[in-house]
Amino acid sequence: MKFTGAICIALVIVLVSSLDLTSAAVEEEIKVACVQTELIPCFVAAFIGSQPSAECCEKLKEQQSCLCGYISNPVFGQFYKNAQNVFKTCGVPYPKC
């Protein structure tokens, strides 16, 4: 009986631990949700060729994992191809998709 109780306790601990890891993974996914409008602060710098703002660089770094999807979008892809100076200034490598 004690052995069964110990197994049940161990199972509960494993389940609770895995829920915490799952929660952390979900929070990480939320942080990097691909929202193209987050890059609006970069539009002026890309079109005019001006210095990108700190906000632009921060958003560009946050959205870095989404950039290939943005570049392949026929509506916005040309914007990103013209924004290579913004990538360089912000220290974000231009994605190789």
Q: How would you describe this structure to a colleague?
A:
- GO terms for molecular function: lipid binding.
- Residues 1-24 form the signal peptide.
- There is one protein chain.
- This protein is an all-alpha fold and 97 residues long.
- It is 65% helix and 0% strand.
- The chain has a domain at 30-96: Hydrophobic Seed Protein.
- The protein has helices at 2-31, 43-48, 54-62, 67-71, 77-82, 84-90.
- Helix 3 crosses helix 6.
CATH topology of the domain at 30-96: Hydrophobic Seed Protein
Low-confidence stretches: 3-29
Portion of residues in helices?
Answer: 55-70%
The string of secondary-structure elements, in order, is HHHHHH
Q: Treating each run of at least 4 consecutive H or I residues as one helix, how many helices?
A: 6
Shape: globular
The percentage of residues in β strands lies in under 5%
Examine the secondary-structure arrangement and name the CATH architecture of the domain at 30-96. Answer: Orthogonal Bundle
What is the CATH class designation of the domain at 30-96?
A: Mainly Alpha
Pairing-aware structural class of the strands and helices? Answer: mainly alpha
Measured distance between first and last alpha carbons: 58 Å
Q: Kindly provide the radius of gyration, computed on alpha-carbon positions and rounded to a whole number of angstroms.
A: 21 Å
Mean pLDDT, all residues: 75
Tell me the number of strands: 0
CATH superfamily of the domain at 30-96: Plant lipid-transfer and hydrophobic proteins
**Biggest sheet, open or closed, and with what strands and sense?**
none
InterPro entries: Bifun_inhib/LTP/seed_sf, Bifunc_inhib/LTP/seed_store, nsLTP2
Protein name: Bifunctional inhibitor/plant lipid transfer protein/seed storage helical domain-containing protein
Signal peptide: 1-24
Domain Bifunctional inhibitor/plant lipid transfer protein/seed storage helical: 34-97
